[in-house]
Fold this protein.
Amino acid sequence: MKKLNLITLTLVTAGLLFFAFSCQKSYPVKAKRVILLGIDAFSTDGLQTAETPNLDRLIREGALSLKARGVMPTVSAPNWGSMLLGAGPEQHGITKNGWKTDYHTIEPTVADSQGFFPSVFEVLKKNRPNLKIAAFFDWAALGDLFNNKYADKIEITKDFRDTYRKAIPYIISEKPDFTFIYVGHVDEVGHAEGHGTPEYYQSVTEVDAQIGKLISALEKAGMYDETHFIVISDHGGVGRGHGGESMAEIQVPWIIRGPGVIKNRLIEQPMNTFDTAPTIAFLFNVPQPDCWIGRPVFGAFERMRQSAMNKKFYVPKPVSAVKSGIYTKPKELNFSVRMKDAEIHYTLDGTQPQKSSPLFKKPIKLEKSQIIKAAAFKDDCKSETVTVDFNLVQKVSGVRLKNQPSPKYPAQGALSLVDGRLGNSDYQNPAWLGFEQDDLNALIDLGKIKQIDNVTIRFLKNEGSWIFLPTEVRLAASKDGRNFKLVTKLNREQIEQSPGRAIKRVKLNAKGIKTRYLKIFAGNIGVCPPNHPGAGGKAWLFTDEILIE
């Protein structure tokens, strides 16, 4: 009996020690001050391409994820709500811009008497009432997403400069424990000028300069070293918009810096942007509510086991002087990278570049269609790969369609097939022409007799949305526009059927013919096949561009 009691006592003691150790390990950091910096529409491309010396400093002194996932839909309110509320739209019910407690479709799983889901402001204030909390933002609708009574100060500002102009002196004088600063400048420029444009990158640099002013003020006041920064974004963008399903929209950077955070390291673990609120709760040593589905980003903290596997540092991807696209003249391709002593290696056959790949030393002459991939290397670390899909094509005089695209997906009509605008994996992208049960039957006029070597047609495959690859593709040619001769054709078996969703390039060998007119036919499957959930329903054929070399 005594032996049994001794064993029991030993096990209980060990359990208590483990519990105590676990509790100690659960909170390796106790934050004195947390500043959450929100930059609307700040993409991973924006971070890696724009000049951002102050964000680069936070990255060197902290941790970065280039693969933080936002929520669907990729619009602002659901994503900012998710970051501040520690959960997704399925839980908090914010599914669209303009959401209010009295204007919504999905009820939150938990709500207070005023209809609000628990926010990070509420969780901090209820657990530690003495914390001083502030928020500054230039998009008034942000204030509709959480119960404002849990913030000691909320100020809606005129623009991004005004936001920092008011936030900085408040932080220095009042020393709030938690401050949220949001700016919409990058999103506004993205909508006006387009994501990935010089103007877009300049807007990122302008916001970075404001962050620099905040850092300088904190340093001057002796507050910088003890401050935790978290930099977040709601979505990226494609063209002048967002809201689709592309990786460029849903994947964003996430930066954290401060005491106890690993330094100059990439966060390798998968994470979601709604992990932001739980991470802040973790920093302040307060429990998160059961209704939050996010979890702290443990891989960012020195004393957490998850961080041990994060050994790589951030190397920005190369910046290409030539973007993927369609061109009618040869180009010279230059690469640069925003990191001292980083080397750029590239491939010309579409394979992933390695350190053993050719070293970029001088401009690459692009005199034919090809795919160039490049990556930057420093020590044993590699950047993301940048891809330049260069298409050198013949000029086209005109296009006519026998069957018109559906009014639901018309793009810009027939000329969309040769306008140089490429769609992405989202079938709602405006570059796609959608044919419902109809075939693609196009007549192309080159303006004069030219030699044609290849014709490539781009199709979208998304069978879950009833969009199928063609059953066959035919190419015919004529010098006079009346008498056409079949040049080549591919049947369904010859058109490689890629698994899952894909953009398929179907290449036809034109054999160096000399012609002025081309007829291109792509057969629609007609109806969804018997094994498809929509069996018997009208099938779609989607195409965005015909490339003639």
